[in-house]
Amino acid sequence: MSLPSTRQFVLISFVALALAACKEQDAPAQAIEGYIQALVDKDTDNLTNRSCAAWEEQAMTELDSFGAVSATLQDANCQSAGEDGDATLVTCAGSILATYNDEQREIGLDRQTYRAVYEGGEWRMCGYK
């Protein structure tokens, strides 16, 4: 098996960097995915860190609604979908699977349009549109 040429290596490296940059460019979507994951994991600290100041109380209310269920995130994929004032709108695909007393309920992530704002040097969940 032969090693790739310098030209092939440079091309492969460029493609890898370009793909990584595309993923990093959608920081609002990544923030929303992180918020949803923290919600499912019932991670209070992470959830509040991923919430804007105005949303922290509501985030705790959302967390309370998951208190009695076992939840998992399935096929979550979010992307920026426009702007609303100072917020970036984010739409998601996938679902949360919530189980209570052996009964499973699927909650589609596409039912909401999420609002992400840049606050404190990071993108954070800040409500729904």
Task: Give an account of the 3D structure.
- The protein has one domain (about 25-129): NTF2-like, domain 1 (Nuclear Transport Factor 2, Chain: A, Roll), CATH 3.10.450.
- The N and C termini lie far apart (about 55 Å).
- The protein has four helices and five strands; from the N terminus they run H-H-H-H-E-E-E-E-E.
- Mean pLDDT is about 85; it is low at about 10-25.
- Strands 1, 2, 3, 4 and 5 form a five-stranded antiparallel β-sheet that branches.
- The relative contact order is 0.17.
- The protein has helices at about 5-25, 25-40, 45-50, 55-65, and strands at about 70-85, 85-100, 105-110, 115-120, 120-129.
User: The CATH topology is what?
Assistant: Nuclear Transport Factor 2, Chain: A
CATH architecture: Roll
Could you estimate the helical fraction of the residues in percent? 25-40%
Number of contiguous helices: 4
Uncertain runs with pLDDT below 50, 5 residues or more?
8-23
Defining traits:
5 strands; 4 helices; 40% helix; 129 residues; alpha+beta; globular; Nuclear Transport Factor 2, Chain: A; five-stranded antiparallel beta sheet
